[in-house]
Structure to design on (902 residues):
């Protein structure tokens, strides 16, 4: 029997994050102040972020030390396992070796905790003991709640109202860790009160919740804001995933031909892929890096590359990225974590420069892949992560077609224990492949800010 | 930093299960045929169990080989980690070292998969490709569904009707793995039809579901029955937990003073404790072994030691065990896995002989312990497992009182991702400590079979 799991000891866990800004041939254009349209400086951000994270956002240092206190909390679940999906290889009858990194072992159930912990930590170190954030389906809210709890900090989560009522379990988890969870739009902020005055029955949206959290943080001296994806420092923290994975594959004497991760705001893809992009950029290593996204929200495969706002109300800085436009409302697919109109500027720039690839996948093919994977490996995957599984399956079948023994690794970013209602709908035949609303996309792209 | 996790490689996983029947000073009295009241022989059981499991039920061999095919599936999640709960020790300000074994890493989310896999395997080896079973809240049904899926077998799960409708998520998981899940009472069996004729609105019960599954298996040549706890072979398979834990503690150069596990039918407790009972019985090692049960269903602490049926209808063999009587309906606590009227004969006999201990815990103290543990370690535990946490906390506080640096280990048998509604009720202040229905217990005990 060859080993199924490749484990690292805590001593083998990376003690530094990898900053890809040190090695990119072209950096993204700088974020712009939404009012002045001038590049934002540290002072613009210091009202809502601690100085250490602002530094991480812009530094070109290649390696950033992981503080010992953060390492100690990482040890609650890290290093996470890499597993060889032998049973999936057999089911596909492919000569490809399929590995996956499993981030679902985190107590939050996803990779989000990798950045929630350092974000909370760096705020705490600068005396900020209260964080405000937004959450849609709740993955990020759970992770930040756990992280704040570890450092004795308060956490206020603006949760999109429709999810607050329809997905009470992630809300329960946030409350177990002591967070105050508020249905957004709320009466707590001007932004929320304005929406409620216009429409008392508003179901809320991520854009509104971001506005409320940012307003909360900007108005209170004791409070900062935290974001779960998109920004450079978030992707930096997630690189612990790919750094570990590379060490683990080396223990099995392999280097991947293809590295795959699902991509919403980019933190999961960046975390898995950037340590391999490092090899490609600095050593000329031949490795394909594929971002897997939903065809119903095809930011990287159908978006425009340029400046756009991070939120619907246009309160955040303008980011240089692939975007579908803030007016684009993606169809109601069951991968809430991948329904974002924009994408990480770092990921966007790498795609634009041809260093990475992106592919999109239909919802039903993704759920078919998820069920096949579950039957082979036992693990019920999160729908978001299942985009990476479907991508890996397609690559493994292409390898079979070509008779090539490729080595493939994908990141399984989270488990699906809290996504079982989506599986229920799938098995009842109720999930459909939404056609992309082409006319809506065209109009949304036409309304992009002209800069 | 001392290590948080103690890991074993797959090569270090035990390759044999430990059979405590080899070392017990007194074996339980034999099971009796429910009709003749004579000891059951292999022929009585062969209609619903494969011969290899019947052998394991009665053998006095000390070590039983784990088949290689079972080991390979175990490797999907085993060896499971032992963790040092440093943050919990700190929160309690105790000199005690607190460790826990974590079985929630299994893809089923609990220890149940440890026996589901070999049970499916030994049936498959004897040509039986269809299993029938019952499930209440669904932990066992999920585990057996996964196990049957791995060996290409069919699985029919009779799920208590009220759970089928109120707890659809574990049902979804069984269906993902291809099981046929039927609300019990059903029209598929005589037992079910009889109940429905009397009461078409019957919510079902575990007793009825057992009757349906046993009838299904007894009537069909191609089908056997599988049980998730109580029986000797089930506890045998679970000993992989304690065997691993002992190796892991040895890596940290410690041997426990106290070993704790929650106890419903006994498979979790037996699996964790028996390898340590072995040391106590054969080497005179001084170690306390504590079974933690709910005060609302206090089988070991308030039950009668004698013969009783395993099911409500009296169709199963009479087992020699602690029992509250089959008429005892425990209050509706949120630890569905611990609401069984009887207990494993092996565990019962060891308790009767003073080799192990039992303690009972109120529901609200258990949930308080669960939330404290979650805040310290990140993991949201299953309510059943949280009985062991509360017991460990009490022992750690007693050690503090006595100024003794005891070493405590408990088994965290499962995670609570599918139990969040119970946490919701607890945090809303809706969970109460049910007083034991003393009069009902007295009457139930008075109606025990007279043998």
């Amino acid at each position: 029997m060859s080993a199924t799991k490749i484990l690292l000891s805590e001593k083998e866990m990376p003690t530094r994050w990898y900053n890809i800004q040190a090695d990119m041939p072209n950096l993204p254009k700088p974020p712009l102040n939404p009012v002045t349209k001038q590049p934002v400086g540290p002072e613009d951000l210091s009202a809502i972020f601690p100085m250490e994270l602002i530094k991480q956002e812009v530094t070109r240092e290649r390696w950033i030390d992981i503080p010992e206190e953060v390492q100690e909390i990482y040890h609650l679940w890290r290093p996470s396992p890499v597993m060889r999906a032998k049973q999936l290889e057999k089911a596909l009858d492919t000569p490809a070796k399929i590995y996956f990194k499993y981030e679902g072992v985190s107590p939050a159930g996803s990779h989000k905790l990798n950045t929630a912990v350092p974000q909370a930590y760096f705020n705490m170190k600068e005396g900020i003991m209260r964080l405000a954030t937004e959450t849609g389906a709740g993955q990020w809210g759970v992770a930040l709640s756990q992280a704040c709890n570890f450092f004795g900090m308060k956490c206020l989560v603006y949760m999109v109202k429709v999810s607050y009522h329809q997905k009470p379990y992630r809300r329960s988890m946030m409350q177990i860790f002591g967070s105050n969870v508020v249905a957004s739009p709320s009466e707590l902020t001007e932004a929320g009160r304005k929406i409620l005055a216009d429409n008392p029955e508003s179901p809320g949206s991520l854009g509104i919740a971001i506005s409320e959290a940012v307003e909360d943080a900007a108005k209170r001296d004791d409070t900062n804001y935290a974001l779960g994806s998109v920004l450079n420092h978030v992707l930096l923290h997630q690189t612990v995933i790919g750094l570990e994975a590379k060490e683990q594959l080396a223990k099995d004497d392999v280097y991947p031909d293809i590295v795959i991760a699902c991509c919403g705001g980019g933190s999961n893809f960046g975390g898995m892929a950037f340590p391999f992009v490092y090899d490609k950029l600095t050593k000329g290593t031949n490795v394909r890096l594929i971002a897997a996204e939903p065809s119903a929200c095809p930011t990287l495969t159908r978006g425009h590359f340029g400046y756009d706002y991070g939120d619907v109300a246009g309160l955040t800085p303008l980011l240089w990225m692939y975007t579908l436009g803030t007016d684009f409302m993606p169809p109601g697919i069951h991968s809430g974590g991948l329904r974002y109109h924009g994408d990480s500027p770092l990921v966007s720039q790498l795609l634009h420069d041809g260093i990475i690839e992106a592919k999109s996948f239909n919802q039903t093919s993704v759920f078919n892949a998820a069920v096949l994977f579950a039957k082979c490996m036992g693990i019920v995957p999160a729908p978001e992560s299942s985009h990476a599984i479907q991508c890996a399956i397609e690559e493994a079948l292409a390898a079979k077609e070509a008779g090539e023994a490729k080595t493939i690794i994908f990141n399984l970013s989270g488990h699906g224990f809290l996504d079982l209602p989506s599986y229920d709908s799938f098995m009842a035949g109720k999930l459909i492949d939404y056609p992309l609303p082409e006319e809506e996309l065209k109009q949304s792209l036409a309304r992009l800010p002209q800069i």
In short: Chain A touches chain B through 47 residues (CB under 8 Å). The first strand of chain A starts at residue 5 and ends at 6. The radius of gyration of chain A is 21 Å.
